Amino acid sequence: MKLELKGITKRFGSLVANDHIDLVVEPGQVHSLLGENGAGKSTLMNVLYGLYEPTEGQILLDGKPVTFNGPSDAMAAGIGMVHQHFMLVPVFTVAENVALGNESTRLGGALNLQTTRTRIREISDKYGFDVDPDAVVEDLPVGVQQRVEIIKALIRDAEVLILDEPTAVLTPRETDELLAIMRQLTSDGKGVVFISHKLREVKAVSDVITVIRRGKVMGQAEPSASTTELAALMVGRSVSLTLGREAATPGEETFRVENLSVLSGNGQAVVNGLSFGIAKGEILAVAGVQGNGQTELTEAIMGLQDHVTGSIRLDGRELVGMKTSRIIDSGVGFVPEDRSVDGLVGTFSVAENLVLNQYNEPPFARGLSMKPSVVAANADAKITEFDIRTQSAAALAGTLSGGNQQKVVMARELSRPLSLFIASQPTRGVDVGSIEFLHRRIIAERDAGTPVMIVSTELDEVLELGDRIAVLYGGRLMGIVPGGTSRNVLGLMMAGMTAEEALAREAASEENNTEGGAL
Question: What DSSP letter does each residue of 20-63 carry, written as one string?
């Protein structure tokens, strides 16, 4: 089935999210939609899937105009969509989730799942999914849950499959498996729309690449185009994708975590017996698929978790049991993973947000009163230093783009001498150009002698910044390996293998490859 979008425009009031976009997806083709967060990719696909009505333009299937009043219309026409956040009921089985919205019943009204189970097994066998129809979804790895979402679309005879940022929650191995599945689907004549901002993956799997920036198509590119060329199309200027940084020269270890555990409200250990240290002048990058204890680890360090055991020491002082305000006063800079919820006050000005951690201290305050002129002068200096794109220092922080909001948080946290700097998901939702800038600031803080911990689900970022890399799985530390460790080893660790096991597995694989080559 050939899919065409002609002149698709979607407006939300005065905001133009999609501006006269043309797109063609041929049968048997992976058509990648590449662009930064906020570029309009997901909005466009939500129009295609019937979740939004286009303000202007047409959708055509095999040359015939169609109108979708909701996802059920899109599915009936042969379009399926796998959302970034899965639409599954965790306590239901695979078969029950697949049957939702398409239920068949036996005489008497009982749900008949046998046909669904049979179809799941047929699709699973055909594409090598290895999915058990009777498995409970919450017991499945994330990568298998994603396959369930794909099965949901295929069982409804989808001929065009939309995958919205599908690798965001996957390990490297699961990502490679998904790319292989996409190729299997296209070899079967299906069209795949792959929405992503990850250049390496887009180049690896695409037949055609369309780049969107600020709601407009900037052009099409071949998969053979360099990452530099694609990045320039995404952001509108040339961008350096490698830092070329100097090696770290670590000093003494001044930050130490010993046997740290954090319990959730139901008594489950979400962080389980972690021990590690960070020296002055080095970056420890914490890797892992989202949801493996990273959030709770950073919150425990910042005094934001209640059920914490073990020890967290900074410059010899115990932080466990200390209030967050005192931890900040101890010289800890913290960039939280959700800037809009925990990093900024959207209804405060940029200038006010830049002093949230020092608003009641000299030189920004005298007694109980803030000094507006000093706050304004500080804001002007930081806006220039960090290239924060804002109409003025008085603009509300909530009106800034995601990348510029992140620069405000980073500028504030790096505006004073630090004993420890923690950045969780430091470039989430940030354009390629801003990523380059923020990475350089993190490196500069390391080079100033500060112990730095970054937490990121982006493996490229972990490899770019980490002098050492710690991998979490299920709240446990799988090991700490040197920066530059192979993606394969890190991927195995992210899937639950210890560092020793992963390194041994890679060594054995290399030995087998060498022997095979010799033969």
Answer: EEEEEE-TT-EEEEE--TTSSHHHHHHHHTTSS--SEEEEEETT
- Please state, in angstroms and rounded to a whole number, the distance separating the CA atoms of residues 254 and 445: 15
CA-to-CA distance for 349 and 394, rounded, in angstroms? 5
Spatial separation of the C-alpha atoms in residues 164 and 44, rounded to whole Å: 11
Q: 3-state DSSP call for residue 13?
A: coil
Looking at the structure, tell me whether residues 42 and 184 fall in a common domain.
yes
- Which tens digit of pLDDT belongs to each residue from 136-162? 998 888 888 889 999 999 998 899 999
What secondary structure does DSSP assign to 284-343, as a single string?
EEEE--TTSSHHHHHHHHTT--SSEEEEEEETTEE-TT--HHHHHHTTEEEE-S-IIIII
- Residue 411 pLDDT > 80, yes or no? yes
Dist. CA 480–CA 486, nearest whole Å: 13
The pLDDT of residue 166 is above 90: no
**What digits encode the pLDDT tens for the residues 3-53?**
999 999 999 888 899 999 999 999 999 999 988 767 888 889 889 999 999
Burial of 173 (0-12, 13-18, 19+ CB in 10 A): middle
**246 part of a folded domain:** no
State the pTM of this model.
0.75
In this structure, the answer to whether residues 275 and 367 fall within a common structural domain is no
Domain carrying residue 353: 346-405
CB proximity list for 242: less than 8 A, separation 6 or greater: 464
Same domain for 93 and 173: yes
